[in-house]
Design a protein that fits this description.
The chain is α/β, with parallel strands linked by helices. The protein has 15 helices and 23 strands.
């Protein structure tokens, strides 16, 4: 651990050391390269109390002031884009080019988007002549927002919470995943550089069991936004039940794609390479179940397998790499266990256990790599078809009728996202309405408009995020009635 990096909490505008730490791993090498604070409850309380005090001033600032501050933070990150991208790649395992093209630019965009959004809030009003009264509404900030973000898209998703929370006038205590905390720590340096007032955004690092539990259970955190696993969300729901907190939960998915015979097959295959395997399949929106109409099934599978085998697995620093390293050895073992289930319940056509192991540069032999894997012939009841794998694994099945495809696509407990591939405009509308998913893409994937609501149905979450939804979530609506 020659180049060991030791992170510190960021509270009241200053970095603060912590006595307890957890190891931080470089997934590409399978080696510890730093230490992350495992922040105890008393430090979390200090951060909350500090943000609670800062709320008294921050909540009274103008929208223009808060907007300008978010823009300065965005500019500060953008000025160091390459540095942030390299850090995100090393921390998470994704290719550097992906972090450079997607993760960090999207974090910058999140901040600028909500910097603009807060300037375009429109209140509602009514006139009641029979009472000689006027009603109008206001959106008021709530207080200290507790924000917990995941390890797969670290800065990307953390800023998607911080930006609207601060724009709305709340202060923040954020806890990034303990597995990918470095870019959040780097952003705190930007906070200092641009003059974000002390206490407005405090950052505490640590495990969910210690730091996360202290934050979610804190009585002075009235609003909580969490993105992560469904199992963790169940713990959070039980924890916050006595406090009546306002909560948003963006959770996992088991996302289907329905491929009809009339689709543009070239575009469909190419897009599935991204929707199934981008970020090593570690995106809650990734396609994991591909239902293909029977008349093109054989052709689709042949081309899908060939395209999958062409994906380069390896060094995240290489521009040729399409699939980097998984987040941890434990997660790699989990993904491999699902591939074994697929081998027993169906057939593995390519990837792990079928194709040679990826050729890795010297020093990366112990990294957490998994070849993109294609599984067929699993029944819908198989765990591979029901449970979130969160890795580079695609399960392909055939269907005949539109009705069958819809029923099978909906046959899981999740409902986050789905894709429909067809040239028939009437069909894509009909199928999209019938699918139980918060977002349905037709003939595309991951085309996101932050003006639109984002979130899941069923076990995929509670609440929505986006322009209107996030600004409403981080404020309380108040109706004021004035009799003339």
């Amino acid at each position: 651990m020659a180049d060991s990096l030791v992170l510190e909490n960021f509270i009241n505008g200053e970095f603060m050391a912590c006595d307890s730490h957890v190891d931080n791993f470089d997934p590409s090498r399978g080696e510890v390269y730093g230490k992350i604070p495992n922040t105890p409850a008393e430090t979390v309380d200090a951060a909350v109390q500090n943000s609670k005090e800062a709320f008294k001033t921050w909540s009274k600032t103008t929208a223009e002031y808060r907007s300008n501050m978010l823009r300065k933070i965005a500019d500060g990150i953008e000025a160091r884009l390459d540095e942030f991208a390299a850090a995100e790649s090393r921390d998470q395992g994704k290719p550097v080019w992906l972090a450079n093209a997607v993760d960090i630019p999207r974090a910058v965009y999140n901040l600028r988007f909500f910097a603009n959004a807060v300037l375009h809030q429109i209140a509602t009003s009514t006139v009641q002549p029979q009472f000689n009264a006027v009603n109008y509404s206001t959106q008021t900030p709530i207080g200290v927002a507790g924000l917990i973000s995941p390890w797969n898209l670290p800065l990307y998703l953390l800023t998607f919470k911080i930006a609207p929370a601060l724009a709305a006038g709340n202060t923040v205590v954020a806890k990034p995943s303990e597995m990918t905390s470095v870019t959040a720590w780097m952003m705190c340096k930007v906070f200092q550089e641009v003059g974000l007032p002390a206490g407005v955004c405090n950052m505490v690092f640590g495990t969910g069991a210690v730091t996360g539990q202290a934050l979610t259970s804190h009585p002075d955190v009235p609003v909580l936004s969490f993105t992560g696993g469904t199992a963790t969300a169940e713990v959070i729901r039980r924890t916050i039940a006595p406090f009546n907190k306002k909560v948003s939960l963006e959770l996992g998915g088991k996302n289907p794609s329905l491929v009809f015979a009339d689709c543009n097959l070239d575009e469909c295959i190419a897009t599935h390479m991204r929707s199934c395997f981008a970020n090593q399949g570690e995106i809650c929106l990734c396609t994991s179940r591909v239902f293909v109409q029977d008349t093109i099934y054989d052709q689709f599978v042949e081309r899908f397998v060939a395209a999958t085998r062409s994906l380069t697995v390896g060094d995240p620093k290489s521009k040729e790499t399409k699939v980097g390293a998984l987040i941890s050895s434990e997660h790699r073992a989990k993904v491999l266990s699902y591939i074994e289930i697929g081998r027993k319940d169906g057939r593995v056509l390519c990837g792990e256990g079928v194709d040679p192991a990826p050729e890795l540069p010297v020093g990366l032999e112990n990294g957490y790599y998994v070849r993109p894997t294609v599984i067929v012939d699993c029944a819908d009841s198989s765990r591979c078809m029901q449970e979130e794998i969160f890795g580079p694994v695609a399960c392909i099945s055939k269907f005949s009728s539109q009705e069958e495809g819809i029923e099978r696509a909906n046959g899981v407990k999740y409902g986050l996202a789905a894709c429909v591939w067809s040239r028939d405009v009437s069909r894509v509308h009909t199928v999209a309405h019938a699918l139980q998913a918060g977002t349905v893409w037709t003939n595309c994937w991951m085309v996101r408009d932050l003006n639109m609501p984002f979130g899941g149905m069923k076990a995929s979450g509670t609440g929505r995020e986006g322009f209107k939804d996030s600004m409403e979530f981080f404020t309380e609506s108040k109706t004021i009635c004035i009799k003339m």
